[in-house]
Design brief:
Methane Monooxygenase Hydroxylase, Chain G, domain 1, about 75% helix, mainly alpha, 3 domains, elongated
Amino acid sequence: MTKRFGLDAALFSVKAYLASMLAIYIALSIGLERPYWAFLTSYIVAQPLAATVVSKAMFRVVGTLVGAAMAVVLVPNLVQKPELLVLGIGAWLALCVFVSLLDRTPRSYAFVLAGYTAVLIVLPTVDVPDTIFTVAALRVQEITIGILCGSFVHALVLPQSVSAFMLQRVSNILADAERWSRDSLQLEAVPAIDKERQRLALDVTELHQLSIHLPYESTRIAPRIRTVRALQDQLSLIMPLGAAVTDRIAQLHAAGAVSQDVETLLADTRAWFSRLDKLSLAEREETAIALQERSRALEPQVGPEVSWNDLILLSLLSRLSALVDAHRDCRILAEQLATPSTKPVSPRAAKLVEGRRGRELHVDVGGATRGAIGAFLTIVLGCALWIGSGWHEGATAIMLAGVFTALFAAAPDPLAPLRSFFAGTLLATLIGLLYGFVLMPRLAGFGQYAAAMAPMLLMLGALMQSPRWSGIALPMLLGLGSPVLVSDRYIGGFAGFVNGAFAQLVGILFAIIVIRLLNSTGTHAAIRRTVRAGWADIAERANLMSPPDVRAWINRMLDRIALLAPRLAMAGRSPGAPLYDALRDLRTGIAIGELRELRLAMPPSRRGPLTEVLQKVGEYYRSLDPDRPASADPILLEDIDIAMTAVLNDENPQLSRAGALGLVSLRRNLFPAASPARQAKTIEVPA
């Protein structure tokens, strides 16, 4: 309700304004000459949720200290060798950007800040190297004041809890997931279900990002991160299981092989999904067990004579039971998150949470390398142009270009925020002229200054909360942090103000040019790297002899799907088909894990057909080209059918069932249009 009437945005804006004024007042009171750094920092760390402000403040403090220390190390040792100093500061910024892009959590902000803080300190002091320690110490003080003021106000004045926000998001995510799963069980396919289900990858990623801030919660007892990780694991299962169930229902329905008992089971499961949020823990558990027992009772007998439709039915009932399990566990973990006690709400909750560790994410070394090269070239080429031109304000331009290159290196499209920053800085320059040379000369005292700044800062602070206007509002706020507007005394100096503003705009333009030159095919290259990484993972997993880590595989693939979504949209490609391919790859990797487990459980003398299938699956994925993806070799289809016959003839019924499930999934994923499998009555199994 408060969001509907803009009260949340208004509250955030008021708190951000109070924090900025408090930062300026303290900086002026202790005699700091550049209070605008405190002002800028208070807005940079501003976040609507209290814990995110505190965590970002901690990362910023660490990054600032490390960056200042590096500046103090570089300048005295290399000031007599300007070429080496430029290379040194460029290499430091590149290293920090590279590490931050590999980290891919809110912690990465500390690495970025360590890089560009050194740039902010080094470039303005190259002409006066003897002042480097003083400048570094003052910069740390100014920035720390802004951090502390922002953290104090946002965390203690009507704080908004990240835990409460997370619990609300969990509630919404579960409602969506249950609706998607309910739609997955319809006999007639829901056209939009695949596209909607893929949003779950973005939701899981959002929960991961929010969980980083839980240790900094100040408004209530925060949920344990291990519980969030366990919930992420269960949510991650829903997408591949739901897609598999949808596929099997479509196959059986097209063949007219959906019995009345199966149709009733699907209807009852849909009804259970529709009222999960209204059932008690005991009621959910009781109904889930009953549905799973009914699924098991309807499973056909696995053996050499089993038909293809029966194998599809077996796969449907098995995946349906697992889907029920995942949804039940999600609701248990959601209750565990909501309780302030660390005591498990049920024995199953304790089992689910036990041993949970961090979430495995996709690592894009190529993208990190590209970002690091961009940061390095921005500093080196920029300094060469600055020194060659003799432009005094060139240091400011290159300093800001380095900052922006580092800040937006992780963005799917770095040019978009840079364009917004250019427009916002240009508007801030025009507003700054009004304030600096019309209003400021008429003000007397801090009170009048705070009152004069209030209308603009409050309006821009509220716009920061709008997805539509935040890209313009933040750079306008930062543009208003000019030394002319935020100072211990009225400076004036029209030429200095214009030169400084012009340097800011030139710096942004230079960053845009460098990034555009490096990223002319950046989005497409990122898509190719992400897709190829998933294929390489599958190829490697197919040939390993160790037990599979299915949880890690699902986490990495969902993270890749979440990364692909915005990049595909920017590339002007429909997200439906490519993302469905990624979902198919996710399910293929799960099937490979099942077959690897089966291979380990089988006697060595009977592993030959499975080993042949896994080897050829690895070869297929290793040979794929993202620009020209090819269909799987029909010989692989024959090998899958041979392996199917082998496992169905196995004397161990449990191994036969597990093998049938894994091979049916693999066949449906790689050869969805293939005709039904026909098993031979006998087969020669290699010794």
